[in-house]
Design a protein that fits this description.
single chain, six-stranded antiparallel β-sheet, 2 helices
């Protein structure tokens, strides 16, 4: 490659005396004397020889005369193409070798990474976590939209981690969480019977969750968890709200005040129900945790409920007034040995 480039771009004007440089399309170079340039042929002599040699002009790339003048021929394009092909091949082989080195290094890095990961200490421990939760409601099809569905609250949990392998563990969590649901969808009217909107009771229920999840260590610091959860409601509060968020008048001109009251799980609201609100909730929980330090862990969870907590929903016949929970958690934990 370097030979060809030197042939094309270097002018050997010293070291050979008064000789011409004859370059062929093959890349070969002869130093000698050009005797005659004909219509189709060129006659030349080798350096220090007197024998005339004849070659076709189409087989020549260029002649660099000792005077410094350059004359090009048909074979120059062939030579330049050959140089380009060799240069591309050189770059390809170089890139291929670099890619091979990168693949080998990545393979070595993976081997080292998984070796270090598998050699990390496997142990059982506890984690105390606290943080915030964002509780939402998955409504049935016939619920009117209420702007106050979302609730920002506190969350606290105690996790027990039981190692199964170096990368897999059983993560059993006992968690306090607040979840929302709505009950009593009722349309209200003014004194003359004109429909003004709809109101319902927003229930904020405090649950104790049990989460037996499987945790998988993705890296040294990042773990993914997945599993079911089972919840039991311990208490709650409720208040009346409208779908437009404004004060309103009940039929007959009676003003309704909106204030928080306790949820009574025992007193029946309907003869066929012990309570409108189910105490049991169940669903799935997924989580992602990141180990900030040896003791501090950040974890985010999402719980999706499958249980319809509005027991009285079937009271409304074919209308879908079901209520299911949806809660997002963001907590920070302290690891106990």
């Amino acid at each position: 490659m370097k030979k060809l480039l030197l042939i094309l771009f270097c002018l050997p004007m010293i070291g050979f005396g008064q000789v011409d440089e004859i370059i062929f399309s093959s890349g070969d170079t002869i130093y000698g004397k050009v005797i005659e340039v004909g219509v189709n042929d060129i006659t030349y002599q080798h350096k220090d020889e007197t024998t005339n040699n004849v070659t076709k002009k189409r087989e020549l790339a260029k002649v660099i005369y000792f005077s410094g003048r350059t004359e090009t021929f048909q074979g120059l394009g062939i030579l330049e193409s050959k140089i380009a092909v060799e240069e591309n091949e050189r770059l390809y082989l170089k890139q291929k070798e670099e890619n091979k080195k990168i693949r080998i290094q990545k393979r070595v890095d993976r081997i080292i990474y998984f070796r270090e990961l598998n050699e990390s200490k496997s142990k059982n421990y506890f984690v105390i976590r606290t943080g915030i939760s964002i509780a939402d409601i998955i409504d049935g099809d016939d619920w009117t939209t209420f702007k106050q569905d979302n609730t920002l609250g506190l969350s606290a949990a105690l996790d027990a981690i039981f190692s199964i392998t170096n990368r897999i563990a059983l993560d059993v969590s006992i968690r306090f969480s607040q979840k929302n649901l709505k009950t009593d969808p009722i349309t209200y009217t003014d004194i003359v019977g004109t429909t003004l909107g709809q109101y319902a009771y927003l229930n904020k229920i405090n649950f104790i969750d049990i989460n037996p999840n499987i945790s998988y260590k993705l890296t040294k610091r990042i773990s993914f968890s997945f599993g079911p959860y089972l919840s039991y409601a311990i208490d709650g509060k409720q208040k009346m709200m409208t779908n437009d968020g404004r004060d309103y008048q009940m039929a007959g001109g009676i003003k309704v005040e909106s204030s928080w009251t306790s949820v009574n799980f025992e007193k029946p609201d309907y003869p066929q129900y012990e309570s409108q609100v189910s105490r049991l909730d169940y669903g799935v929980d997924i989580g992602l945790s990141y180990l900030l330090t040896e003791r501090i862990q950040i974890k985010t969870n999402y719980s999706l409920g499958f249980s319809d907590l509005n027991i009285a929903a079937e009271y409304y016949g074919e209308q879908d007034y079901s209520q299911k929970t949806s809660v997002f958690y963001l907590t920070i934990g302290y690891i106990l040995n």
